[in-house]
User: What shape does this take?
Amino acid sequence: MRRPYSRNGFLVSAVLALASCRQDMHDQPRYEPLEKSHFFGDARASRPQVPGTVAQGQLRIDEHLYTGKLQGNLADSFPFPITRQVLERGQERYNIFCSPCHSKVGDGQGMIVRRGFRPPPTFHSERLRAAPPGHFFDVITNGFGSMYDYSAQLRPEERWAIVAYLKALQLSQAAGLEDVPAGERQKLSRD
Assistant: This one.
């Protein structure tokens, strides 16, 4: 006489069958970056970007704002009006990102230099006083010499704000009494 399956045996068989068919999230059928693929004709699993596509937020058609250049040349102007708020934001960002090396007055004697590192050039040299704003934007964006770039830390508008503050800093450090308006000169002489 044939024995019917016991209820417990059936449940154990069902659980084992289900457990053997599961696929965990960590074990997904996918390609690793730059892995070879036999599916595509070029044997690459990483697909090239479709020509003409732009990732959201990456459309940068304003050459002046994003590169500091106009028709391939360093810009002599700013891509937006410079207001008091822009200068204040530039001063704030300058004090955080630039002053450790360049100092708060831009003479290249910041705290890093006092700790033994090589000093950067002073912003008050004739060469840098004559440099266009696009030069400073380009250096902040791409780095120069031992200075690394700040494009990941600062948005383009913040980089331009720093450049505006830097130009104001250059003016303030080289200003003479004759550069002060007459009404303001009287206030200075009273102090």
